[in-house]
Write a structure and sequence with these properties.
- This protein has no helices and eleven strands.
- It is mostly beta strands.
- The strands form two sheets. Strands 2, 4, 5, 6, 9, 10 and 11 form a seven-stranded mixed β-sheet that branches. Strands 1-3-8-7 form a four-stranded antiparallel β-sheet, with no helix packed on it.
Length: about 130
């Protein structure tokens, strides 16, 4: 079983909203930076948003800034990605990842994260 499990994906119309959740199955998320990444068919995996272990620092890719919000509830051992005003270009498999050493403040780089979930599909289409 993957150390992280994503949920909340699905099919939504343009302009709609979804909230993704990332839960840990084998460890406590507190103390780990968490990143959300996405990969569309034929494209590289890209960083969408990431959050520091305490939640005080966040980063958003320009393409989602103002539309997506990352948050974490360490007591619930879960990190969320609220996605509003979804666009067809947001269609992708979304992954969450965790790492104790990743620095949050600039672009979220997949290479900096050790633990990954299996992904959840988000499809934005009318």
């Amino acid at each position: 079983q993957s150390p992280l499990v994503e949920s909340g994906g699905g099919l939504v119309q343009p302009g709609g909203s979804l909230r993704l959740s990332c839960a840990a199955t084998r460890f406590t998320l507190g103390g780990y930076a968490i990143g959300w990444f996405r990969q569309a068919p034929g494209k590289d995996r890209e960083g969408v948003s990431c959050i520091s272990s305490g939640g005080s620092r966040t980063y958003y890719a320009d393409s989602v800034k103002g539309r997506f919000t990352i948050s974490r509830d360490n007591a619930a051992n879960t990190v969320y990605l609220q996605m509003n005003s979804l666009e067809p270009e947001d269609t992708a498999v979304y992954y969450c990842a965790a790492d104790m050493m990743a620095v949050v403040g600039g672009p979220c780089r997949p290479s900096e994260y050790d633990y990954w979930g299996q992904g959840t599909q988000v499809t934005v289409s009318s």
